[in-house]
Amino acid sequence: MIVVTRLNTSRFAINPDLIERIQENPDTVLIMLNGAKYVVVEPMEEVIELIAQFRARVVSTARTLDSTAPTGPTSDGTLPLRPRTV
Which among 44, 11, 38, 4 has a CA at the least distance from the CA of 26? Predict the structure, then answer.
């Protein structure tokens, strides 16, 4: 999730995977896949940077998972994951 600010200064978190496009003319508008539109105070470049940072965190977190962890499901059907020890 990324945190952005509405024009009334209230902040909210939004899933960047659901953003279809970003327009700036002059306000920044986030247009979602479902057609919803959110006008935010952050400039388009800052929103793009927030999305890039979010994706970098996701990749970084994924890399901390131990690649030698058991790969099969446990008795309750979940996959066991544990942090990598470096």
Answer: 44
Question: Distance between CA 47 and CA 38 in Å, rounded?
Answer: 12
- Global model pTM greater than 0.70: yes
Residue-wise DSSP of 21-48? EEEESSSEEEEETTS-EEEESS-HHHHH
How many Å apart are CA 50 and CA 56, to the nearest integer? 10
Cis peptide before 73, with omega less than 30 degrees from 0? no
The two most distant CA atoms of the chain are separated, in Å, by 55
Residue with tokens 């952050």: 42
Backbone angles phi, psi at 5, to 5 degrees: -120, 130
Segment 24-83, tens digit of pLDDT: 999 999 999 999 999 999 999 999 999 999 999 999 888 887 554 556 667 777 766 665
